[in-house]
Amino acid sequence: EVQLVESGGGLIKPGGSLRLSCAASGFSFSNAWMNWVRQAPGKGLEWVGLIKSKTSGGTTDYAAPVKGRFTVSRDDSSSTVYLQMNSLKTEDTAVYYCVNEEQGAFDFWGQGTMVTVSS
Amino acid sequence: QSALTQPPSASGSPGQSVTISCTGTSSDVGGYNYVSWYQQHPGKAPKLMISEVTKRPSGVPDRFSGSKSGNTASLTVSGLQAEDEADYYCSSYAGNNYVFGTGTKVTVL
Fold first, then answer.
1. Tens digit of each residue's pLDDT (9 = 90 or more) over A26-48
2. Residue-wise pLDDT tens digits, B88-99
3. Which residues of chain B have a CB within 8 Å of the CB of A111?
4. Chain A partners of B34 at a C-beta cutoff of 8 Å?
């Protein structure tokens, strides 16, 4: 059974940093392209960023609103993907989902972790 | 990258069909066959319903079908059931990034 378990969310002041983790199991993590998708309260889904598998180059891509502030990384030895978030803004407040991607579709989703940026 | 355009709401009676549109541009929906659809019930994580425009993952009822013409993709839910009441989002690959639709709330009358 595929499982994605996010952690690390919480309340943080504007300008602060936070690192989210996502522990994966039940599939070949090292071959997976892993993404982060967020959803602000009462709003729609927004793609945040991805990291490709090492066999695909291990490169990352980011949405414009987070580029330069957020970094996605991975540790294949522990099947974990991370989202380092710096210079946080109030508009970054959202539930953050860790998602496995296959052929351009977001296959499996974690339960999400809430990040609240507020003074 | 702008969000794909979906109608805010759609509705139908049990047993009827409802179709949701998802309009983008030639840089996303029209340029790639990587359009997918997601169902989200309140307080839950989204669930993949359609991938690569028309493919249904294992376990998704065949009442759900997808199509695309030009820059517009569509999701049709036939034989509406009470449990189909949810928010639906489309998504498309857009060349090194992804874009989601604005979301459609489907109500079963």
1. 999 999 999 999 999 999 999 99
2. 999 999 998 999
3. 45
4. 103-105
